[in-house]
Amino acid sequence: MIIGCPKEIKPQEFRVGMTPNAAREAVAHGHEVLIETQAGTGAGFEDADYVEAGAGIAATAQDVFARADMIVKVKEPQAGERKMLRQGQVLFTYLHLAPDPDQTHDLLASGATCIAYETVTDDRGGLPLLAPMSEVAGRLAPQVGAWTLQKANGGRGVLMGGVPGVGPARVVVIGGGVVGTHAARIAAGMGADVTVLDRSLPRLRYLDDVFSGQFRTSYASAGNTIELARAADMIIGAVLIPGAEAPKLISRAQLSELKPGAALVDVAIDQGGCFETSRATTHQDPIYDVDGIMHYCVANMPGAVARTSTIALGNATMPFMLSLADKGWKQACQDDPHLLNGLNVHDGRLTYYAVGKALGIDVVAPSLVVKG
Predict the structure, then answer these.
(1) Residue 49 annotated among the catalytic residues of the structure
(2) Tens digit of each residue's pLDDT (9 = 90 or more) over 207-243
(3) 7 falls within a domain
(4) Are 344 and 119 in contact (CB under 8 A)?
(5) Are residues 200 and 348 in the same domain?
């Protein structure tokens, strides 16, 4: 199989879909790897690193898309990239289709088979290809939130850890999953007063048992959420419904109840955001003000630490990529029900229920597609 990796073109996206180590593994399995020139530069990988690993270098993205049987990326394909997809080609990347009807319709029209990192599962009910980027984004969230809180950026001018005689920032993390846990740990490590909200009592018990003393936990009822939000200097949105649009947990009307200059960091923005006033921003222009509340909603937060993120993502995706290449997508999905859960689009048909529900599109069961 020819595995192609184009350079990411989303603004300020410096990650790359394949590391030289992943390319070396694929070549060792008997596959041809084609990397667009300078695709890895933003993550610290040069063309020579890929050539040493046995990969070929393509001059343009058009060359990669035209030749490759499978495209491996990081971010969802942009409009120009979607036009280059073709019937029978496999796309393996993050998609986040539920809040993106334009992308969904373009992928359906392409006839390609599209497998989304964010809906691949594991035996423990986790999301192994989303987890490494969730860990990165969670650890970044208090860092970027602290920057947003600085007065020069429109924030409250509150220091995360305070100083002797002055209390620390109050941070509320909504969601106790991978993102929320890492965000809470880092925020607490910065000296902030942290509370994590979640609707799962077993998860709250786990967090309390493991991290007791580092941060507090609370049940995420609507009343608790707004009560804690009113007192917060920073609110980190870390909720996830796999493959579906994120629920809106703080409304536009409720912004008036928050402290002026409070920072909202929406890590769920790839799935539409968990605050009603959230809209995707970029690293170049990351924050904006709505009713005196500062919003940080960068849609590719891990891209800010591209080398760490690329290596972490590559470690997670490599086994699945090799399975798809070695067996073909259909056999690989038949053999691995967790990989099958990643199938979102095939040959003009939508195969992921949560996306169909969000966008009002009919869905065919993925198990029927692989048997067909």
Answers:
(1) no
(2) 999 998 899 999 999 999 999 999 999 999 999 888 8
(3) yes
(4) yes
(5) no
Catalytic residue (choose from 106, 233, 270, 336): 270
Structure tokens at 85: 């997809």
For 97-154, how does the pLDDT look when each residue is reduced to its tens digit (9 = 90+)? 999 999 999 999 999 999 999 999 999 989 999 999 999 999 999 999 999 999 999 9
Global pTM reads: 0.89
Last residue of a domain, one of 241, 268, 299: 299
Q: Which pLDDT score is estimated for 213? A: 85
The rounded distance, in Å, linking the Cα atoms of 337 and 354 is 17
Mean pLDDT of 39-56: 98
Cα–Cα distance measured from residue 303 to residue 50, given in angstroms and rounded to the nearest whole number: 20
Phi and psi for 270 in degrees, rounded to 5?
-60, -30
What's the average model confidence in pLDDT over 316-345? 98
Residues 199 and 321 in one domain: no
Burial 150-189 (b: 16+ CB within 10 A, else e): beebbbbebbbbeeeeeebbbbbbbbbbbbbbbbbbbbbe
- In 3-state terms, what secondary structure has residue 9? coil
Claim to verify: residue 280 and residue 178 sit in the same structural domain? yes
Q: In CATH, what number is assigned to the domain containing residue 255?
A: 3.40.50.720
**Total number of domains in the chain:** 2
H-type helices in the chain, by residue range?
Answer: 20-28, 47-52, 61-67, 79-82, 101-110, 131-148, 178-189, 201-211, 222-231, 306-327, 329-335, 337-340, 353-359, 366-371
Q: Which tens digits make up the pLDDT trace of 160-184? A: 999 999 999 999 999 999 999 999 9
Per the residue annotation, which of 31, 96, 295, 346 is the catalytic one? 96
96 is catalytic: yes
Domain of residue 366 covers 2-119+306-371
Query: 250 — phi, psi (to 5°)?
Result: -130, 125
- Residue 108 tokens, joined: 């359906």
147 and 262 in a single domain? The answer is yes
The percent of residues in the chain predicted with pLDDT above 90, rounded, is 95
